[in-house]
UniProtKB/TrEMBL annotation:
Superkingdom of the source species: Eukaryota
Matching InterPro entries: Kinase-like_dom_sf, Prot_kinase_dom, Protein_kinase_ATP_BS, Ser/Thr_kinase_AS
Species of provenance: Trypanosoma rangeli
A Pfam family: Pkinase
Annotated binding of ATP, by residue: 49
Protein name listed in UniProt: Protein kinase A
Keywords (A to Z) from UniProt: ATP-binding, Kinase, Nucleotide-binding, Serine/threonine-protein kinase, Transferase
Coiled-coil region(s): none
Similarity field: Belongs to the protein kinase superfamily.
Positions of the Protein kinase domain: 20-163
MF terms (GO), sorted A to Z: ATP binding; cAMP-dependent protein kinase activity
SUPFAM superfamilies linked to this entry: Protein kinase-like (PK-like)
Amino acid sequence: MTGSYVYEKPDTSKWKLSDLELGATLGTGSFGRVRLGKLKGTNNYYAVKCLKKREIIKMKQVQHLSQEKQILMELSHPFIVNMLCSFQDERCVYLVLEFVIGGEVFTHLRSAGRFPNDVAKFYHAELVLAFEYIHGKDIIYRDLKPENLLLDSKGHVKVTDFG
């Protein structure tokens, strides 16, 4: 796959937390959690990464978070989770990401025991394309593992967690 792929992002330039209804926790991390978010008045769902400022500062991760945001804003590819916007309030920094409904490859792999060769080759091919794109942007991804690979509703891989 060559050429450019542009994920069509809605106008999020003025989004704030009150525009979203936050639901279930999708995952947790060192600085906060990822929650399911729904844009009020729509049926549009997002993964909202809520990072506690106090923890980011305490763990000296301000520059790290800034780099993650910069990387996510630069990337737009069908096999990479896209960031729509970011904003903050007095307690947290929020990254609004594309919601990928299929869950982690890790969960599917654990359930199946192993993937059939054709499925493994399919995922591998998509990862090659994703990493060709990432490396073409001079970005090094250092956390490749099944927990950081998601499957969309059509079974395509999405690389996540650039933090």
